[in-house]
């Protein structure tokens, strides 16, 4: 079981959400082999999408780097023994991000002319 074994390194989540994420990680570890990081991450992501709406991201593994942007109040990074968990919600949907990128490119082209 995960209770008492998780060490939270950083979070900006409300305590209730923080506890819910730790519980989901516990469930995922009980349901899947520890070596199946993709299934563990997918389980947590799907459950968070169901409860808190879409755009959740979950990275699970023993050695990874990251550079992310997240919606305030939706970030947690913790580990259970050697397994690291990085969970966060993206603040924008893909169409907004794409439209924003196109606008920046158009401005840059107009400035270069």
Tell me what you see in this structure.
There is one protein chain. By secondary structure, the protein is an alpha+beta fold. Helix content is 46%, strand content 21%. The protein is built from three helices and four strands, in the order βααβββα. It has a four-stranded antiparallel β-sheet, covered by helices on one side. Strand 3 (76-80) and strand 4 form a beta hairpin. Helix 1 (15-31) runs antiparallel to helix 2. The radius of gyration is 17 Å and the shape is globular. Mean pLDDT is 83; it is low at 94-98.
Summarize, please.
With about 110 residues, the chain is an alpha+beta fold.
Distance between the termini: 62 Å
Low-pLDDT runs of 5+ residues are: 94-98
Query: How do the strands of the widest beta sheet line up side by side?
Result: 1-3-4-2
- What's the helix count? 3
Average pLDDT confidence is 83
- Sketch the major β-sheet: 4 strands, antiparallel
- Radius of gyration, rounded? 17 Å
